[in-house]
Write a structure and sequence with these properties.
Layout lengths: L1 H13 L4 E3 L2 H10 L5 H13 L2 E10 L2 E8 L13 H10 L4 H9 L6 E7 L5 H8 L20 E7 L4 E6 L3 E6 L15
Parallel strand pairs: 4-5
Antiparallel strand pairs: 1-2, 2-3, 5-6, 6-7
Helix pairs in contact: 1-3, 2-3
């Protein structure tokens, strides 16, 4: 993405354009339709920036420390029903994905009674409804009510919202879904007592 964005921003700078907002796509498309000189290149560059998820960019002239470019990246967003149910299909999909198979193999080779999988769920890499349920900004304690269908040998799942929230969400077969505190020192993953 970086290389594409840099090349595209250089095209805009050559055209004398130092600012980009996502609404500029339509602005330059109209100018292209009017056959304004340079508008076709500007429209193409703006369309590419939008496809890359960039919603805002500003370039300032080079100073003593070189050029400065600031990019605004579109983060995920959307609606949230106020429940934790979206966590279940997400963790099932995550653990069923081939990219998770190495973790499953490591857990299987441990030959112990319990297999705990810890997942760091970054706000930009999970669906919005999952992030909102995990981060629990309103401290409502929202949790899923359905047990996840996890591949063997996974018996427990620990979900850590990133950036850090005050609690994480976990599932254990004997306990169901529960929240555990996140403190400056991450708790022992084997300790499911949240009253300590």
């Amino acid at each position: 993405m970086h290389a594409q964005a840099e090349k595209t921003l250089a095209t805009l700078e050559k055209l004398g354009i130092s600012d980009f907002e996502d609404w500029h796509v339509e602005k330059w498309a109209k100018q292209r339709d009017l056959q304004t000189p340079g508008a076709a290149q500007a429209a193409e560059a703006c369309e590419l920036l939008r496809k890359l998820g960039i919603i805002r960019a500003t370039s300032t002239p080079a100073g003593a420390n070189g050029a400065v470019v600031a990019l605004g990246i579109e983060l995920n967003g959307g609606a949230w029903a106020g429940s934790g149910e979206s966590i279940v299909p997400w963790i099932e999909s995550f653990t069923g994905d081939p990219s998770c198979s190495d973790n499953i193999h490591k857990l299987a080779s441990a030959s112990v009674g319990e297999a705990h999988l810890a997942v760091y769920a970054h706000m930009n890499s999970v669906p919005y409804s999952v992030w909102r349920a995990l981060e629990d900004h309103g401290n409502t304690g929202v949790l899923p009510t359905t047990a996840p269908n996890l591949p063997s040998p996974i018996t427990h799942v620990w979900l850590f919202p990133v950036p850090r929230a005050s609690t994480g969400v976990a599932w254990a077969p004997d306990r169901g879904w529960f929240r555990f505190p996140l403190t400056p020192q991450t708790p022992n993953l084997g300790n499911t007592d949240t009253t300590a």
